[in-house]
Amino acid sequence: MATATKVFVLGLDGATWDILGPLAEAGELPNLSRVRARGASGTLRSIFPPLSPVAWTGVMTGKNPGKHGIFEFLEFGHDPLGGRVNTSRSIDSALLWEVAARYGRKTTAGAVPMSYPPRKTPGLNFLGDFLAPPNARDFTSDPELFAELERHLGEPYRPWDVSVHDGGREPEALAGLTSFLDHHLRAVRFLMDARPWDLFVYDLMATDRIQHELWHAWEPSHRVARGRDLSKVRDGFVAFWKRLDEGIGEIEAALPADATLVLMSDHGFGPVEHFVNFNVWLLDRGYITLIDTPYVRQKHWFFRRGVTLEWIYRIMARLGQAKHRVSRFGGSQDNRLDQMAESLFLSRRHIDWSKTRAYAQGNFGQIFVNKQGRQPNGCVRPEDVRPLLDDLKAELAGLTHPETGGPLVDRVYEAEELYQGPNAHLAPDLTVVLGDWRYRTIGLHDFTTHKVISPAFGPTGDHRMEGVFLASGPTIRPGSSLGPDATLLDIAPTVLRLLGVPAPDDLDGRPLLEVLDPSSLPDLDEPIAPPDPGDADGPPGGGSDDAPDPEDDEAVKQRLAELGYL
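Predicted structure:
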């Protein structure tokens, strides 16, 4: 056994071997290839849904959503007309660095989704993420250091970037996102030397954003790329990943000799070419009922003739306004076309919730039964829930893939098949997984399109379950590989083991012992600070009902809409 090591975790948000593999084989990523050859690598499975707030909360806690309580960007609490942005206050569990702090370990954490606002933790040097509201006074735990960082960067720190490709803006999006990547890599190098740390965690958002916006440049057969010459954009796309590789080399060279480097992604990526709108399907099948008034009947008439979000988006593209993505939530918009969309479209406000039996709500095929006593206007009696679930599953199994003629749906999970824990009651009743992920499930009850299956618009790439993992350093077995069951929930217990910190007993993940060198692992320490008696796993802060300022909440929703998540 050895003394405790330092651990450096760099999130390559959304990175996939489908891109890194071919580029490494072509010799374009020498630093990443060296880490892979000298250390460990493998495929790291995400957790469902493979969405940043859920996935990164899994990384920070080592637990499934049924325990930590985060199921999406927004938490509706089974109120289909509600919805607040999830934050670190919503996490009903101790975070990785909170556990480490009990044993005297110091952490620098930056740009980690769901880490804002900072929860009181000894020895934490904190920098917020893209879910922080604009101009948040608690964006950083050290304002003086933050000012030094901005002087080093020569510009204000950028927590997010909303560059979009829409309307032929691929070159602009490429330039903006490449600059965004470089900005964050330079921030990482500064922060590495700015304060002492035992654990360093930072997530590079740019790797996620560029795949959302420019997957079609990487894959010329993509529907959006057909008939277009995007060769220069593709060259720039490759150059982006080469800059990432260069940054990894700079980081690795600057690490202390005893540090373990972990590179990981919270999910993978792939192309998206079609939308599958489950609320349209539920409306067609009679599970959703609209309010029976002349006003709503008129909206429904226009909806059936294509007056939808997709329609307004096409108008925006023709007018050169596609850089402003239409918001898909019911809130205030600062764009006139957004305002027109909100007033014209069939939306959640036009649903008769007292007669609606089921609705979809979320980014990955989540369907909720409108239960009596759970939803504010629930109408499904307890004895009718089981038959309704069976009917929904049977009808979903009958959906046909429009190209192959085979089944479109691969599997329908019930809540207890995916989630276990005290917060599992917040989970969707059904989660629909398609066999072909080029077809992206959407369940936004503002009826994005008027067809169950329609051509996708906006982002051309989207999340997959298969992420990446690489690690190197004195604690890593050279040439080792992850086991087939490795998931991102294993990151927290693995990091804690490398730090010499015992993991809480209720984690769902496990230490990735198949890639660790037993002779180099540190002894496990005794805690210097006991857990707070009100939380068996950590200090106060998790599971809080404190609501953010409504204007801040609205601003974050607007940003999520611009990024394509709402």
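Summary: Residues 326-335, 533-545 have pLDDT under 50 and may be disordered.
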